[in-house]
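quick one before i forget lol
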Amino acid sequence: MDSKTFREFASDRILQAIIEINDDLYPSFPLKMPAFCYLTFDESGISIHEVVPLLNKKKKEVITSFVYEQIQHIEIRPVKKVIGAVFGLGFRINLDLKLLLKDDTQLHFECESISVCVALSELLSRHHTPVVDVFNLVDLFEKAKTTQEAYDYLSDHLDELAAEKQVEVLRMKQTEDVSSNG
């Protein structure tokens, strides 16, 4: 897939992604939804790679890439996903990530591992790239004794936090109009 095709495809979709930061993967293996792409952050910038189907491995070819100076800001927030459970429906909390570029391009991703927000924030701050974190996810995960403690807090309080911030966090599909989702 070339860069132009990817941008057209991604323009009205929320893409499931594995986030790679300096060789660490989030999640280490997707649990609920196969990833569409790898979103790779390193000291030189951000690159997007396709995934080898069924293997969840990153293809070598880069679809598109950005240097940090091209980024206006990155928005992160939690999103609730409906999952099937043994006795009915349950919910999973994922990370919603939007890349907003200075040329007005918006790319929208979702990652099954919300704990990536700490490593992501640290890397982006080194490159003076603003992170909009209205739910204070970075503070929550930094202050929690364990990752599970932070997830449990979100699980117990996400709906009231979302109501306070007047933000919808329940996502039912991956093709929503991204401009109206937050």
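fyi Confidence is low (pLDDT under 50) at residues 178-182.
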